[in-house]
Amino acid sequence: MSNRETQVGLKEVRQQVLAGTQVIQNLIPPTVSYTTEGNVLVIGPEDLARLAADKLSHMGKCAILANEAITSQDEAHLELVMTSAEDVESYYNKLIEIKGFLGQFQVKVEHEEGSADLSVVAIRKAHFDLILDLSMSPCINLEMLPPGYFYVGQDQAKLAEAIEQLPDLIGEFDKPRYIKVNSDICAHNRNGNEGCTRCLNFCPADAIASVEKKIEIDPYLCHGAGSCTNACPTGAISYDLPTPQSMHTYLNQLVTRFRSKAQIAPVVLFHDIGKGAELVTDQLAGDIIPVELEEITVASVDHWMSSLAWGARQILILNTDATAPTLTQMLKGELALANDILDEMGQPRRISLISEHHLTEAGADELSELLTTSASWPVIVPAEFVATTKRETIYEAIDHLNKQAASVDTCLSQSNIPYGRVSVNVESCTLCMSCVATCPTAALTDGGDLPSLHFVEQDCVQCGLCEAACPENVISLTPQVNLDKAARQARQTLHEEAPFECITCGTPFATQSMVKRMLEVVGTHSAFSANTDRLKMCGDCRVKDMFEDILQDPEKQLR
């Protein structure tokens, strides 16, 4: 069979698999609603702003914020400007800030000796619904701009497109609520200590923030980029459209069904729903299965690794010039870590970032070379595990891929990764269990009735909460990926002591080191200076001893 015939056959298989496999979605997905009356603020040089406002007579109320000098002194131009949008008022106040989204834009400007809401002054409304920005630089400096904010600069084509779209944004609109947060397993803050901040570093829409020590996502600003879910080590932030479980099930079915029908291991290509979808055509090699996402960062290490473990031979991620730079930066870091893990276990570096160049005629040979190389790699026997939590799924995939390669038991050490171990200086640890109380993943646990501290490395996300909570400063973190499954999953004893028994009743009530520490720190306090033995008593016996002492000494009663 010729290569052309083989490709035709593979494309038919791909089409059948894609047609017969669907992502299971919530029948009634959670949404947020925007309501607008079409009230517009036009920002920019007054001449351009007035000419643009003249084309918005079919909108609601309109106002102009002139923030730059007139672009031309040509008489004909100025005469046209003077006769344009004659009923629209211009304001020249200095802009302080713009906050909000479609239907809810708050625009603050300097006014007298303070500030004022321009919408209240200009159109007698609490907010503007839409903003058309013709400034040289955007007034909102974000990679992903809020819905309802149109930055066109002085590009006439973009201006025409925006003016055409604006009338469609009058009324009520629903948008998916892409992300959900489970604060119970979030490692951001516990008991006043700050821990993990990974999700706060990569949102290109500035839709995520720490509010009163809790992670919150503004669903009205969120574009569904998925960078926060990608960065979250515990799964506390998860994508909801589709859910993590639905996406894993979909990937498993795609890979499994393609292997069964085509008898070869496929390549999974993740691409975005926008420009990436435009580039992915039927001309794509038949052994590539395209997977469409809202943004390419919706898929993370657990999706890549589990797809390989289930039998894909290679993962490709299509990064176009439409991808926000912050997302690209994050993606490269995660991809480097994933390939380093594969390299450590003796697997080929099976995950690659490709550009739109690879899907053009000029880059076809480069893509073909990538596919030819991966076709010669050792075939992975498909794993049978079912995806559960994010953490368990990552390790299930890693362990399977390791078993398929060199079965190494080494540790890959890297800085700033959410995997690793905790160490304790046992000489100074009092087993106060502050670390256990603050651990969000139960990686650290106590010994129940016995004074001991236990640790499971697989559950540790290196959030640092235990380190911050430790009053003795005896905890340290070591970021690493441990490929020794047994050691990583084992319940290790970090520290244990014999209990200290009450000298009066014999009841265990503290650790030896805790009592020693109390004697050192508070033994000189007036309440104990005369009788340090009270520090060696349980709470009940200590109270009884103090009252008996007072009852036997009338002067102490008076004091």
Question: Top keywords for this entry?
Answer:
559 residues; alpha/beta; FAD/NAD(P)-binding domain; Alpha-Beta Plaits; 5 domains; 28 strands
Structure description:
The chain has 559 residues and is of the alpha/beta class. It has five domains: 3-24 and 244-403, no CATH class; 32-175, FAD/NAD(P)-binding domain; 176-239, Alpha-Beta Plaits (2-Layer Sandwich), CATH 3.30.70.20; 411-496, Alpha-Beta Plaits, CATH 3.30.70; 499-558, no CATH class. The chain has 18 helices and 28 strands. The strands form ten sheets. A five-stranded parallel β-sheet has the order 4-3-2-8-9. Strand 14 (208-211) and strand 15 form a beta hairpin. Helix 1 (3-19) runs antiparallel to helix 7 (244-262), helix 2 (46-53) crosses helix 3 (75-82) and helix 9 packs across helix 12 (390-404). The longest helix is centred in the middle third of the chain and has 20 residues, at 325-344. The N and C termini lie far apart (104 Å). The mean pLDDT is 93.
The termini sit apart by 104 Å
Number of helices: 18
Count of DSSP strands: 28
Radius of gyration: 31 Å
Mean pLDDT: 93
Strand content: 15-25%
How many distinct folded domains? 5
Uncertain regions spanning at least 5 consecutive residues: none
Which structural class do the helices and strands define?
alpha/beta
Helix content: 25-40%
**CA-based shape:** flat
Strand order, sheet with most strands: 4-3-2-8-9
Summarize the main sheet.
5 strands, parallel
